[in-house]
Amino acid sequence: MQEALQAHEKMLSLVGVKCKCSRKGPKIRFSNVRKLEIKPRYPFCVEEMIIVTLWTRVRGEQQHCLNPKRQNTVRLLKWYRVWKEKGRVYEE
């Protein structure tokens, strides 16, 4: 019990720390994906973070956080892994 209390207090003592994915991003087109980052779940986040960088002609470069449970995100991850294995990944 005391260990749980200490862990909770330690988590609360982190100043300015919050989950980057407080909102989930929109449905995306695979062709607009520039970069895909999969970050592990932090102690203060409910889920792992999937951050995608998109490029569109109108809006330029934007970053969105995706919900890992959505079907579209699962398809994107599968597509990205295949794409990466073929050596076609654009990375800065």
Structural summary, described in words:
With 92 residues, the chain is α+β, with helices and mostly antiparallel strands. The chain is built from two helices and three strands. It has a single domain, classed as OB fold (Dihydrolipoamide Acetyltransferase, E2P) (Beta Barrel). A three-stranded antiparallel beta sheet has the order 1-2-3, with no helix packed on it. A hairpin with a 3-residue loop joins strand 2 and strand 3. About 5% of the residues have low confidence. One of its GO terms (cellular component) is extracellular space.
Radius of gyration: 17 Å
Q: Major sheet, described briefly?
A: 3 strands, antiparallel
Spell the H/E element sequence: HEEEH
SSE-based structural type: alpha+beta
> Which bin fits the share of residues in helices?
25-40%
Judging by the overall fold, what is the CATH architecture?
Beta Barrel
Short description:
By secondary structure, this protein is α+β, with helices and mostly antiparallel strands. It is 28% helix and 24% strand.
Topology (elements, then pairings):
Elements: H1 2-12, E1 33-39, E2 49-56, E3 60-66, H2 71-85
Antiparallel strand pairs: 1-2, 2-3
InterPro entries: Chemokine_IL8-like_dom, Interleukin_8-like_sf
Protein name: C-X-C motif chemokine ligand 14
Organism: Accipiter nisus (Eurasian sparrowhawk)
Short key terms for the protein model shown above:
single chain, alpha+beta, OB fold (Dihydrolipoamide Acetyltransferase, E2P)
